[in-house]
Amino acid sequence: MNIRYEKNSLTGVILADMRNAAGWGITSVRAAETAIKNTPFSITVFDSEKVIGIGRIIGDGALVWYIQDVIVLPEYQGKGIGSNIMSQLMSYAKSNSIPGENITIGLMSAKNKEGFYQKFGFRNRPNEREGSGMVANVNTQINNCNMQRNAAEG
């Protein structure tokens, strides 16, 4: 194995391919390219020229960061690659926030991967003081009938 980590070299094609390979639904290259434009830091991991892992972080740079798209191909899992990606993403958030402030770093774990993220200080929700995390998957296709009806009602 000839593993190398590249900062901020993630492309729309790589992001879309890795998300699709992970089974996270179909991601278009167009959407992936826009996502990358709004991503301040990413990691792409290669074995020679083959992409084997990615990770990226988004956030406001002051209070909240969100780790997204940590993906390592199954045949490369358990070799420390995901841990290295996470360490770099966490380090980026800490070093690019206001010194002395408390920040929140969030993520959504893939099913049965929670233990991996707990090693980095993440905790499961719900717990005794925090509710469940929530997510909404929204299709952005415009439905003119609904928009017109909503405009008339509002």
Describe the structure.
With 154 residues, the protein is α+β, with helices and mostly antiparallel strands. The chain has a single domain, classed as Aminopeptidase. 32% of the residues lie in helices and 22% in strands. It has helices at residues 12-21, 29-37, 81-95, 114-118, 144-153; strands spanning 3-7, 41-47, 50-59, 64-72, 104-106. Strands 1-2-3-4-5 form a five-stranded mixed beta sheet, sandwiched between helices. The longest helix has 15 residues, at 81-95. The radius of gyration is 18 Å and the shape is globular.
Question: Which short descriptors sum up this protein?
Answer:
154 residues, alpha+beta, Aminopeptidase, 5-stranded mixed beta sheet, 32% helix, globular
How is this structure best summarized?
The protein is 32% helix and 22% strand.
CATH class: Alpha Beta
The SSE string, one letter per element, is EHHEEEHEHH
* Named CATH architecture: 3-Layer(aba) Sandwich
Anisotropy-based shape: globular
Predict the CATH topology.
Answer: Aminopeptidase
Mean pLDDT across the residues is: 91
| Assigned CATH superfamily | Gcn5-related N-acetyltransferase (GNAT)
Number of domains: 1
Low-confidence stretches: none
Major sheet strand order: 1-2-3-4-5
The largest β sheet comes out as:
5 strands, mixed
What is the percentage of strand-forming residues? Answer: 15-25%
Query: Number of DSSP helices?
Result: 5
N- and C-termini, Cα separation: 60 Å
What is the count of β-strands? 5
Question: Compute the gyration radius: what is it?
Answer: 18 Å
SS-based class? alpha+beta
- Kindly state the percentage of residues in helix: 25-40%
